[in-house]
User: What shape does this take?
Amino acid sequence: MEPLFFDTARRQLYGVYHPPAMLRTASAGVVLCYPIGEEYMRIHRAFRWLAERLAARGFHVLRFDYDGTGNSAGNLESTSFPAWQDNVLSAVDELRSISGAEQLSLIGLRIGALLAAASAAAARCHSLVLWDPVPSGSAFRAQLEARVTNSGTPLSDFIDEQQAINCAGYRFTNALLASGQGVELAASHFSAAGGVLLIDPQPPITALPAADISVDLLHSDTPADWDTVDELGGLFLPTATLSSIVDWVNEHG
Amino acid sequence: MSMDSVLPAASVGYAESLAVIGAPVPLHGVLSSPSGAARETALLILNSGLLHQVGACNASVELARSAAALGYRSLRFDGSGIGDSASRSTSENHEQRAVSETLEALHWLAQHTGTQRFVSVGLCSGAFASFNAALEEPRIEGVIQIAGFAYPNFKWKLHHYLPRIYSARSWKNRITRSLGGRVQWRKALPDAYLDTETSAGWSIPPQETVAAGYQRLTQRDVAMLNIMTGGESYWYNYQGQFKDNFPVLSQARFEEHHLPEASHIIAERDAQLSVRQLMLDWLTRHFKA
Assistant: This one.
């Protein structure tokens, strides 16, 4: 586990590289794309678990924080969806540069899945895992709006006078959310030659993949279990879903 | 003036670099430094439970960058097994490890930056570690505890139960339960928490032990800032409770603040800004150098 800063000439991005624990016949890598906000905090431990298991199978793995999130430079007031798409490409370049691996896969959860899909072609991504993907930038805004509207904690969940959506301790500005308009899952995103794994899409994805691309669908027994918090604030580690991802990437990646 | 305008902008005035602390299994963290000259005091920002180094709602990152804009270095890092630090094989329990690793981070910071004065900061379990580390290390001259441990007392009971006695809703609930024949008088939560010694793997020390700790910190003239939220209302529910429970704090450089509308992880925007402002104001008052 080797933390690093990359893309430092522009906006310093924080990432953690997991070197492979064994050699594969062909060098391969995986970039993990986090969700954002509260979801990022909840999945962090699970993504580390996932990265370690993939590294144990011989993959070079990089997980990273988008511009304005986590340890990367800036904050949510100063970033955008296009910046995040660009960050995915920077992370892919960084992993290729570190590892020399040409064949890379992208794994994304929620917004991370949307960003991974939207970047897959430009990243020359071999295979793609889309876990509980947000179908579009506007769907993300709608989901946030629905959540704060129905929230029982109006002091943390509300829309402020600048039309920013404050949700669970994170403030998503109107400009940030507006920048996600037009970013959406499309059939053309399902272009990874090595295949696509779609996990628990809610709502079901209607975009049709090209006929020559294999799309595997995984419905876990407990969808969104990664977002579960126990009464002490402990986070649930969705090991069944994570293990399925490791096995699928090992076969397709 | 809005709260936003008083806080230093977290996006300017800092530079960040990686901290790799110890071997063979290092702790990983990020050192935030001011772009100009640094003050003599640095912050050690500790994990809150299993949350990684960025903190609940990115609060640790925001604090570090705001403090850097005021001239303070800070180190936020992950304890072993948390966030981006691998697990270490150790015979220490959770609490002992948090303290020894905090001191390890302090030594790293002293060695790499020459800093000799420190303020430890933590929320929840991080508050416990912040307090305990200060007891072990004289170079920790300031302690910030957010949502740390507290002990209910008589006044706490008045604040807790009186509103319920006069609450029509409370009586209605009781009668409803009674009529349903399913009256279950719940044991008061504080009793359940106080001596059973578990809170997500952390034990709450006896009040006398904490009193002795406050006594020692007071004798050393350590500056202390305790911030409590509504999330700890089963331990703490009125401003001044610390001084009532620990009279020695009246002679200390001690400050306490109660934010009853804030939740335990401080997810409320106004509370986030207030807490950060309280910390920065306190820091600049007590640690000018």
In short: The CA atoms of residues 115 and 209 of chain B lie 30 Å apart. Chain B has a mean pLDDT of 87. The longest strand of chain B covers residues 14-21. Residues 94-113 of chain B form the longest helix (20 residues).
